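Suppose a colleague, Dr. K., hands you the sequence of a protein chain of 285 amino acids and asks what its three-dimensional shape might be. Before reaching for any lab equipment, you can write down a predicted structure in token form. Begin with the sequence itself:
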Amino acid sequence: MRRISTRATCAKWLGLFFLAFGLMLGSSAQALTISGVTIGPAGSNTADNAVNGGSASNNTSATSIITPGGTVVDSVGASVGAQGRYASNLWADASLTGVNAVTNNSYNLSLSVSADPGTFYDITIDSLFQGVLVRTDDSYYGESEASVSAVTVSINGTVSVPHSTSAQLLALGYYDATQVFSESGSSSLTGLTGTTTLDFVVNWTSSADNTEDDEAAVLLGLDEAGGSVGGVSAGEYGNLPSARDLNGDGHFITVGATVTAIPEPGTLVLLGMGLAGLAAHRRRS
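The predicted structure, expressed as tokens, is then:
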């Protein structure tokens, strides 16, 4: 009788343990998180500096976090995202005779994606680069041109996220002209678990040449209107021949993380073992 009682007691406590453990697992929510989003100009960014001996000092750049990430409870298909934006403006005005302004645009974006143990996820990375090249005729014999180079996007030191086009150019000419451009690229990382840290470095060059006295500008989301240089018509969104939302121009990186698999439902097994243990205890008591 004593042996049966001991076995029953062991079965009871073992059953209670598995029952409590199963309930604990069943009540704990797994999570997928994007955090630590930071963005800022890189050391090689010259878009805020004077160019051509200081004759064009109002070239500007700005970075911003549009979507800061967040956390979602794990379920297959659940997703969370983050987005950063770099904007800049480059101009060469007719009053700055003989300027061929070339600036390097460069910025960094960093973030971390993390998931609880047993959760798997995929990451998508989308790159969007769009803006306007402008030429404004304000000299009878003048001409000008504007251009942007190809964009390179490096992730953790490796060049990736190829774009659909390599570069844009508004050719040297005499008359008013605008050229809208938009190019995009995407990449993905699959089958990830734990924590993944992504460090992006983005680079391209902008050029505005008015060496022949007309105005030129590369508009990437910033406006000169109301700034320290008034009347630079090539550098103002309000002077474009068709309305354009400046908030949609610049370079954007969008990162999305999606849950693809969650831990196996071992909770039911543990609950079953717990109930079996309690049943054995009742039979022997």
